[in-house]
Amino acid sequence: MLLHSHALRSWSRSHTPLGLAASRQCLANHLGLSPSRRCLATPTKWFTETEKENAKILEAASAKVALFTAAQAPKDDLTVDESIQRAKVQKDIGPLADVYASYLSARKALEDIQPHLSDPDAALRELFALELDDLRQHLDTVIAQLPAHLLPTPETDDLPVMLSINAGVGGSEAALFAEEMARLYTRFAELRSWRVSVLSSTEGPGGRGLRETTMKIEPPAYAADGTDDAGVYGQLRWERGVHRVQRVPQTETQGRVHTSTITVVVMPIFPDGPSAPLVDPKDVKSEVMRARGAGGQHVNKTESAVRLTHIPTGISVSMQDSRSQHQNRAWAWEVLRARLSERKHQQEIEDRRARRRSQVRGADRGDKIRTYNFPQDRLSDHRIGLNVTGLREIMDSDGLDAVIDALRRDFNARRLEAILAGDEDFDE
Fold this sequence. Notes:
Distance between the termini: 60 Å
Largest sheet: 8 strands, mixed
Mean pLDDT: 80
GO biological process, one term: mitochondrial translation
Keywords: Methylation, Protein biosynthesis
CATH topology of the largest domain: Alpha-Beta Plaits
GO molecular function: translation release factor activity
Number of helices: 12
Family: Belongs to the prokaryotic/mitochondrial release factor family.
Shape: globular
Pfam families: PCRF, RF-1
Order of helices and strands: HHHHHHHEHEEHEEEEEHEEEHH
CATH architecture of the largest domain: 2-Layer Sandwich
Strand content: 15-25%
Number of strands: 11
């Protein structure tokens, strides 16, 4: 048995997973960049079910790491912009390259142990079989690290949002549905300890429902440890667009199903800084006026309403919900900054899409994204062909998680497709 143990230790020392430098060299060889050392070729067999299930992840990681390796290859006469781009690629993909190199090293160890599993000595076969189990567990552990590096959380996920709901086609029924959706998002936020501030709200026809409402939703000041939920924008980003409701209104006497719509606008609020759009006060025209609408003695007697107009873009924001002109001005500035931030963010997204070779599926905010069919107790998300039942639970915010999770899975699948096609990653 001592002889057997010595033989196994000798094999283990010679087949310990490679260190980082050696693993990177193995990676370079695998990608055909250097013949100096034999490295693992494209897998012809799967060593574990986890490896097989993550075949697309591994393929995408290999494609992305190829960009990292190419950025490391020596090249003469680089321009300043090229040098900056190469440095960015190395910084962004470096952690993924290290994990992928460890994966190749783990596979090589598994490949090398295969002949020993048929050793004529039964005791040695048993020892090598135990070693095989450890190597498989190590391989699965390494593979589990790949998705986080390959599909990192978009930088915009943790941003607070400005969420607006506007009643569309359907008159009072649309206003009632807008009020229900405002209640849904408020409840959804409260369950996550997010902070909700209603900035403006306009009643619907006859004082029923909401014609329009705008709310600011922020993460808690102190996030709970261990939470792995996406941030505010990371979850609510999927809600923007036209929502259609089909149901029998309370005022309908003949039981006919009516169709109404609302529009939900979700704008990330970028922090003040170099990455945020700079709003020069000189470019903003500020006006004060008397408030209009229902409101008792206060209305039409004091100039508390505020309208801000960003002259370069023509974006205009009016606010009159507070009796304080100072408060209305502060809220108007918040909404204006959010709209300008959204404008810049959307322009960056369009620029990235124009650079990609493949067309990215997605719904514009003007598209009908979802239908709430109450007679059939069904929610349909038209972007991914999702149909779920239990509409009342969803409207109580208890089932919205499942819809958002499905949209995120589709989003990440499209990110994988883009990487496999040689395109850059995207966050919209």
